């Protein structure tokens, strides 16, 4: 990523993006005209009810889909204009993901799953698996290193998902309803973990949720209704300090 930018300049810049989906004869306008700057180290929540456009917005931000109009830049790189190969390389070097359904590979152990982002960066096997084991210990899974996803609870799988998202120290971690399948106690643990890593390493988090309890962890809450930003609130830090396990 380019680093000439002074510290005050935004890490993520969203300019006039619009996203349309063709649906039969009709067109669904999922995002209308979104403008947003997100700074390095910010924990930014994209908040709204179901169907408000949150996942569509995250997909444009992370380069998973191309906006119909407008542009997204991360660290000055116009990711909405990169081709598939450039995007894959960009994601491997700069982005991490935490999924609602965990998305661990079923035939790999926890250690192998967490080591994957380092494999894509060319780190030799012994080193990357050592780093993965350290990461799994940090998320409280030292007793599950060689377990397969099906042998772990949802909360444990999501801890492994977090270890995988953060292991390569990405600039931005995207999380779309990361605790959507988890109980409230586990939700707190998972959110503390995500925010703890991000604060310690000054990483940017884009957290998509419809749940006000989760939004309470963010520094900033951007609220969407019908594909438009209707409010953008910066908050003082209350929750999600560095937990002792980190
Ligand atoms: P949220 O994540 O806030 O629940 P989405 O971003 O998934 O909302 O969806 C926003 C709107 O865009 C909805 O009306 C949804 O039906 C529509 N939409 C999302 N993806 C597609 C698609 N691939 N094709 C057609 N419509 C879509
Ligand atoms: Mg969604």
From TrEMBL:
Protein name as catalogued: ABC transporter ATP-binding protein
Keyword field contains Manganese: no
GO MF term list: ATP binding; ATP hydrolysis activity; transmembrane transporter activity
InterPro entries in alphabetical order: AAA+_ATPase, ABC_transporter-like_ATP-bd, ABC_transporter-like_CS, ABC_transpr_LolD-like, MacB-like_ATP-bd, P-loop_NTPase
Keyword line: ATP-binding, Nucleotide-binding, Transport
Domain ABC transporter, first and last residues per copy: 12-246
Organism of provenance: Candidatus Gemmiger excrementavium
Keyword field contains Transport: yes
Lineage: superkingdom: Bacteria
Taxonomy of the source species: Bacteria, Bacillati, Bacillota, Clostridia, Eubacteriales
């Amino acid at each position: 990523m380019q680093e000439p930018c002074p510290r005050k300049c935004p890490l993520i810049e969203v300019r006039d993006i619009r996203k349309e989906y063709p649906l039969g004869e009709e067109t669904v306008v999922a995002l209308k005209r979104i403008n947003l700057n997100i700074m390095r180290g910010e924990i930014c929540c994209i908040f709204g009810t179901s169907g408000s456009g949150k996942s569509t917005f995250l997909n444009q931000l992370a380069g998973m889909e191309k906006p119909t109009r407008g542009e997204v830049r991360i660290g000055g790189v116009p990711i909405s204009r990169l081709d598939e190969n450039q995007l894959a390389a960009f994601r491997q070097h700069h982005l991490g993901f935490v999924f609602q359904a965990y998305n661990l590979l079923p035939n790999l152990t926890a250690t192998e799953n967490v080591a994957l982002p380092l494999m894509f960066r060319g780190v030799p096997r012994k080193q990357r698996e050592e780093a993965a084991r350290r990461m799994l210990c940090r998320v409280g899974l030292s007793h599950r290193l060689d377990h397969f996803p099906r042998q772990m609870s949802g909360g444990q799988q999501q801890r492994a998902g977090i270890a995988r998202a953060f292991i390569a120290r990405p600039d931005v971690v995207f999380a779309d309803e990361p605790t959507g399948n988890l109980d409230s106690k586990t939700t707190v643990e998972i959110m503390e973990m995500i925010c703890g890593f991000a604060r310690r390493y000054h990483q940017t988090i884009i957290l998509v949720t419809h749940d006000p309890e989760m939004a309470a962890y963010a520094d900033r809450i951007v609220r969407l209704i019908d594909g438009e930003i209707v409010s953008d609130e910066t908050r003082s830090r209350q929750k999600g300090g560095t937990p002792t396990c980190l």
